[in-house]
Amino acid sequence: MSTISNDTEFRQALDALSLEQQRTVASRFVQNVLSLSGDSRLQQVIDAVEVGTDLATAFKSAKRVSLEAHARCGSEGDWNEQAGYFVARAAQAAVEPQVRTAGKNPAWKAAMQCRMARTCLASDSDEDTHDLETGAQHQLLTDYLNP
Amino acid sequence: MEINELLIWARGPAFHWALAIFVFGMLLRLFEILSLGRKPDLSAARDSGVSGGLRTLFTRSLPRPAIFSREPLRILNGYIMHIGLFVVIFLYRPHIELFGGAWSGLPTGVVDAITAVTILSMFVALLMRFYSPVLRHISTSGDYLAWLITLLPLLTGYLAYNHLLLEYTQMLTYHILSVELLLVLAPFTKLTHLFSFVLSRWYQGYLAGRRGVES
Amino acid sequence: MSKPSVEKGIQFIKAQIDAPVASFFSSCVHCGLCAEACLFYTETEDPKYTPINKVEPMRRIWEQEYTVLGKLKSALGLSKPIDEATFKEWETLVYDGCTLCGRCSVACPLGNDISGMIRKSREGFAAAGYAPPDLIGATQRAMEIGSPMGVKLPAVKAQIRHLEEDTGLKVTIDQQGAEYMVLLSSMEIMNFPEYLEAIARIMRQAGKTWTIASTAFEATNSGIQIGVSDLAKVIVSRIVDAAESLGVKTVISPECGHAYTAVRWEGPNLIGRPYKFEVKHILEILDEFTKAGLIKTEGMEEARLTYHDPCQIARKGGIVEQPRRLLNKVASNFVEMRDAGAMNWCCSGGGGVSANERAEGLKLKAFKRKKTQLDELQVDTLVTACANCRLTLEEGLEENGMDIPVVGLTEMVADHLVEEERGS
């Protein structure tokens, strides 16, 4: 498989990877949207994946960030900030302990959250930036599979 | 006034006036409630409001485990007090004769024992009202008044039956007077719950029945 | 909303007093059992949170306006006042210290609907200007923008696009004659977009037509939470107008507790007439679909999990068995917490409390009750069916260092959905 051009191929390719590989790919997806979050802790979370250090601590950190970032019920929703929430959730997915995901692909989860983060920016306008992220993810995966 | 004159008065006009005030007072309280009316519920009913209302008249007399476990003594004491009052008022033969009732009562010795227990439960209730932070916070002078006017007939009745403290005719007179005090004041205290409980349980139960929810 | 005043506040509370309320105050014997049902009391041990105490201002108004004895006492100058100080003192009891969970109403031996009275009291407090600023803001946004969190249609459309591209499913907007109209809560739109995806997949499997209304996608009714019926009415009317003009059979209320109470039970009374459509909670729909074999599930979650009953859905909504039936289809290790079902304890964030930043500390204290339930049970996952409960639980768990993921039931069912092959 040389190029990923659609989501079916995308998903299949992700499923074929090992857990470690999935985490690595997930962290690359997150890296791509990291600028949408103002929280510096998330960089450390992704770094943990690359380096292979304590994922449990990274997970705790990502969880904390996403909790702090979520829109409080009834508060004025800010979609730009909400993007940060989804970035945090993507980071969370990348380092989530296996026992909790029960076999669900962390890379796919992370990819979806990253796209949602990008979608947030479009939420206040009619711009469609969503496709950009999907395309970027296909490219990232292609690059990973063909180093 | 000579004690026998007082007794005759207590048994006669005083009793009729007290009863009249009691009936009139309670009817007034019920009128105050019912005259406010309530808007019909326009949401689509899941189930019957009537069966909900009727069921709730009974379910609230039973304790819920989650609540009972937190205050078992207070709840048990409440049962003892209410059941005791019922027995003492309605299953004591001299009272049944007074009401002109056709049902048979319990042996008077048994009623006497139950009276003692009920008086005890009243004092336990009073102590709890003093010592529980919640009860201290929400209690009013009305609570203590209601307590007193309920206790006096029990106490004087017990003392009269057992020929204690005062000469029998005197004690009996005070017993009847204490009942009259209770009758006259009851409609103006929380003792309205004697009748209004039917309404409060019904109203919530009816709505709960329509919604198919716990009640 | 015209200028607030104590006078207005009193008038508004007075208008809320009906025969049931009068019967409740007449029957209350100050037994104090309502406190034992209330998590704000049990976890703080502060008797001021005793539910019947929360409605003392209303009781005073009832006594002084609607009883002969009360009028007499007033004339003799023996009545307690209801003034600025009263509203100030009771504001935090009526808002911060109460989630309208309804446990007190079920516990009262006299059958008093105390939480109903607290809800009614809020009408007066809001009119007097004594409501939490956060709730006032949310309601204003709901009125002007259509969503308490300021979620506008483009945001919903963006999410729909995201959903359509990722799943290949179609979501229609304003489809005339669709069988179902789906409502979403702002919380779900902003924090849990997977809910919409779950619905889309489930509806497709069940072969049902459904749509989202562009003028009424919002389910949350902050008018109810703050206690301003006029606003609550406007918010509900949007839903009613949309549903009736689209000619849908059923409106689906999302995983949000108060939204269900607002649209299912209070709505018709707010607009003054029955609806021309049915309202069902998503759990009722899922239960119906699985019973009729319209959707099937496969596979089981093996984690040890339990279910938190959202107050408005279980105790006040009557939807207790449906989530359990659904969970038993997709979970092999489902255990119940103590007091599960209609008497379950509130998450501590309902009724506007989670939207009220001022109440944060109190809310976290009240959460200890849920913590106690969970500590006893030792589960790996917590499932619920209300977006607000979900976040409140997550925050509480985080605060207490408890590592238990919280999952939405609809999502969980969708995760186990048997689906035909999707085209791209």
SSE layout and pairings?
The complex is a heterotrimer of chains A (147), B (215) and C (424).
Chain A: H1 7-15, H2 19-33, H3 41-51, H4 55-69, H5 79-95, H6 98-101, H7 106-122, H8 130-145
Chain B: H1 3-34, H2 49-59, H3 65-68, H4 72-90, H5 93-99, H6 108-131, H7 133-138, H8 141-161, H9 168-185, H10 193-211
Helix pairs in contact in B: 1-9, 2-10, 4-6, 6-8, 8-9
Chain C: H1 6-16, H2 19-27, H3 33-37, H4 39-44, H5 51-54, H6 56-66, H7 68-75, H8 84-94, H9 103-107, H10 114-127, H11 133-144, H12 153-167, E1 180-182, H13 186-191, H14 194-206, E2 210-211, H15 222-226, H16 229-246, E3 250-253, H17 257-271, E4 278-281, H18 282-291, E5 305-307, H19 321-330, H20 360-366, H21 368-377, E6 381-384, H22 387-399, E7 406-408, H23 409-415
Parallel strand pairs in C: 1-2, 1-3, 3-4, 5-6, 6-7
What is the number of strand segments of chain A? 0
- The N- to C-terminal Cα distance of chain C equals 50 Å
**What overall geometry of chain C do the principal axes of the alpha carbons give?**
globular
Distance between the first and last residues' Cα of chain A: 13 Å
CATH class call of the largest domain in chain C:
Mainly Alpha
What number is the mean pLDDT of chain A?
82
Biggest interface, chains and residues, is: B-C, 56 and 61 residues
Portion in beta strands of chain A: under 5%
Determine the mean pLDDT of chain C. Answer: 92
The strand count of chain C comes to 7
Domain count of chain C: 3
Instruction: State Rg of chain A.
Output: 15 Å
Give a written overview of the molecule:
- The complex is a heterotrimer of chains A (147), B (215) and C (424).
- Chain A has 147 residues and is an all-alpha fold.
- Chain A has one domain.
- Helices cover 71% and strands 0% of the residues of chain A.
- Chain A starts with 6 loop residues before the first helix and ends with a helix.
- Chain B has a domain at 3-11 and 64-189.
- Chain B is an all-alpha fold.
- The longest helix of chain B has 32 residues, at 3-34.
- Chain B is globular and about 65 Å long.
- Chain B has 10 helices and no strands.
- The model of chain B has no long low-confidence stretch (mean pLDDT 96).
- Helices cover 75% and strands 0% of the residues of chain B.
- The model of chain C has no long low-confidence stretch (mean pLDDT 92).
- Chain C has helices at 6-16, 19-27, 33-37, 39-44, 51-54, 56-66, 68-75, 84-94, 103-107, 114-127, 133-144, 153-167, 186-191, 194-206, 222-226, 229-246, 257-271, 282-291, 321-330, 360-366, 368-377, 387-399, 409-415; strands at 180-182, 210-211, 250-253, 278-281, 305-307, 381-384, 406-408.
- Chain C folds into 3 domains: 6-131, Fumarate Reductase Iron-sulfur Protein, Chain B, domain 2 (Orthogonal Bundle); 141-291, Glutathione S-transferase Yfyf (Class Pi), Chain A, domain 2; 305-415, Rossmann fold, CATH 3.40.50.
- In chain C, strands 2-1-3-4 form a 4-stranded parallel beta sheet. In chain C, strands 5-6-7 form a 3-stranded parallel beta sheet, sandwiched between helices.
- The interface between B and C is large, with 56 and 61 residues.
